[in-house]
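Posting for a labmate who doesn't have an account.
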Amino acid sequence: MQRKTLITLALAGALLGVCGLSALAAYSTVGALRATNVRLRWFEDAATSARLTETLRLDVGPGVMLAIDGCGGDIDVRAGGDGVVEGEQVVTGWGADAVAALAAAKAVAVRVEHDASSVRITCDVPDEVVLVGTRRGHDAASFTLRVPAAAGLELRTGAGSVRAHGTAGAAVLRSGFGDVHASGMRGAVEAQSGAGAVTAEDVDAGAGDVALASDFGAVAATAVRGRALRLSSRNGALTATGLTATGPVEAETAFGDIDIADARAAELTATTQNGAVDLRGGEVAGMVAIDDAFGDVTVADLAAAALRVAAGRGKVTLDRPRGAITVDGGFGDIEITGAVGVRLDVAASNGAIAFDGSLDPAAVHRVKTDFGSVTLALPADSRLDVRLRSDFGAVTSDLPITVTGAVDGEARTGTVNGGGAHLEVTTRNGDIALRVLPAPARLPDPT
């Protein structure tokens, strides 16, 4: 009995000690916050807002640089008349009632510094911590401004949206927790959001670059032109239509689909760890490189000098490709249709491979799968040196093969139509079939 009492007293003492340490830590934290001028709110429901509106008009030069930073609200900047930056500034404060909300708005200090070449707007927004209670919004200053068309922009906000339209200078647009949108721009653009969507429309950077990025949000681009174009997200889909780059186009996301239509570039790369990749139309002078760990890959009507696909798990579909084709597939079928004069280097770990089209007569072609069938449909007049081998499966051909070596089980080595391009097809477990590609239908003779 005495032992139980001692244990109980010990536990009670330990509990009191923990509570005392917690109270001391809380007291120290509150003291530290007060020392840094952080406003503490106890038992407050800040559900009322107040706004203070002010008109801005600043005389500037045509190529002025506008910078806004640290104000926490929405920013909307558009091209306007020359020689002036003008618009509206709105400060919003939140409190438990109208008086407290107005006091919060008045506590936001907006500083404007300017000369003919630059305008810099910064804010001192008091930090607040609600220890017990809620806040329906945050104190911030928002801006809606018109600037000279040639203006450059550096717009940054912590928790609002950023929108820019029609300016011709270089633009840096960033939001911590809000959407970012650029449209009608005629200069280099760098747009980034920590947790919002990033979009660009009708942007021509000329010899400059365009970079669109979001940590947690989708990225979309329409009719964007420049030297190098980059779309990226850590967690979000990438969508683009009508991209034109004299240099590379790069699209990379960790978790999300990539959908690009009608891109024209020197080279194009698309990378996702988890999502589908869909490339349609367009023209790439050099290499198209796709790396997809988990997801289907589809490429259709995209003219490129070379196409390389690395796919971990998912089907690979290539429609009407040209040039050199390299596919390194993991677990999934590979289907190539309507190919014209291509060089084949295709491999799969576990999946069937199907091809129809014509091969480059001067190239070496290799097709291999560990577990799956291989079916190749080729023009009847194809001239080939073939080596076909299946460890466990049948080898058949509708094309006439003149055997030049010994027949070894399901293996054939020989020539088709007198020989020509080298074609090697192997599978460890599956059938191999060469088929005759049907000739294209001819229009009836009008006579």
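Reply:
Got it, the structure tokens are right above this. Residues 179-305 form one domain.
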